[in-house]
Amino acid sequence: MPYARTSDGIKIYYEEHGRAGTPLVLAYGIGGSVEMWDVNVAGLSAAHRLVLWEPRGHARSDSPEDPARVSFARWALDLRDLLDHLRLRHAHVGGLSLGAGIATRFTLRFPGRVRSLLVTNSSSAVGLPLSVDNLVMRAQSIKITLEQGLDAMAEFAMRANPNLVERLKLDPGARAEFYEEYRRLSPIGYANALRALLAMDHITDELPKIRVPVLLIGGDRDPSLEPMKVMQRKIRGARLVVLSPASHFANRDQPEAWNRAALDFLARVDGRRNARPQRAAPRLGRNARRARN
After folding, report:
1. Phi, then psi, of 241 in degrees rounded to 5
2. Which listed residue, of 29, 158, 182, 221, carries a Cα 20 to 30 Å from 194's Cα?
3. How far apart are alpha carbons 215 and 119 in whole angstroms?
4. Contact criterion met (CB below 8 Å) for 238 and 209
5. Which helix or strand (DSSP H or E) is residue 179 part of?
6. Is residue 82 domain-resident?
């Protein structure tokens, strides 16, 4: 299995699909894995070099026991290290939910490496404070995960997490999918990812600094839709596409429509870039990487 090793020694699992076209690098939401993109892979990889990755604490990537080693800042550095491993100077970056939150912070920190930002079904990308109900639910999730295990966590999430509840209303058969995803996790990895979410940095006021093209894809039944509207207002030129009916898992509820929105956006971005002269990108060297750490 392919892994990249980060600057602090963590192994990050990734997959590549397709080789033609500009690179597109995506991560899924908290508790997810690359399998959650399975309905999108064929369409995306036909036009792009598609890289799917699992942030630390998730599935096949390493899960440090020390919660201080899991944070949005560290996840953004992991994305940088993954791009360096793949020798990608520039890429379209994005993800769903937590994955989009990571990509947004990467864009703010390393804007010169981002062709465009693709945000889908994400409130962490907006960086607003979590609601009291969300804080309580996430804290309970940590306790259940560590004390009762991941099957119990899956059952709790399907009852208490509105993201999963809305998905199940659209597709009751997704219960088996959720059990499978939670069973791919390690308890400490998931618990520390939740702790990182609770300690999330609030980047809302920094969003106007983003100058790359931005596409937001939301679901009409997704609790993250209203925060994403805030993000649209904060970033000049950002476009919001709302899919219906779609939950927090819009890429799975409406895979063809999701792919169409993403691919149309990426084609426009690449068309504009190809139409103007490109400046030479800096070389990626060992000393440059150390300087960024």
Report:
1. -115, 125
2. 221
3. 6
4. no
5. helix 174-183
6. yes
Which class for 239: exposed (0-12), middle (13-18), buried (19 or more C-beta within 10 A)?
Answer: middle
- Total count of residues recorded for the chain: 293
Instruction: Return per-residue pLDDT of the chain as tens, 293 residues.
Output: 799 999 999 999 999 999 889 999 999 999 999 999 999 999 999 999 999 999 999 999 999 999 999 999 999 999 999 999 999 999 999 999 999 999 999 999 999 999 999 999 999 999 999 999 999 999 999 999 999 999 999 999 999 999 999 999 999 999 999 999 999 999 999 999 999 999 999 999 999 999 999 999 999 999 999 999 999 999 999 999 999 999 999 999 999 999 999 999 999 999 987 665 544 444 454 433 433 33
Query: Does residue 198 lie in a domain region?
Result: no
DSSP state of 128: P
What CA–CA distance (Å, rounded) separates 6 from 11?
Answer: 6
CATH of the domain at 82: 3.40.50.1820
Whether pTM exceeds 0.90: yes
C-alpha–C-alpha distance, residues 219 and 231, integer Å: 15
At 201, the amino acid letter reads D
- 155 inside domain: no
CA-based nearest residue to 125, from 161, 97, 106? 97
End-to-end CA separation in angstroms for the chain: 27
Q: What is the domain extent for residue 234?
A: 3-127+204-292
Q: How many domains does the chain have?
A: 1
Letter for the amino acid at 162? P
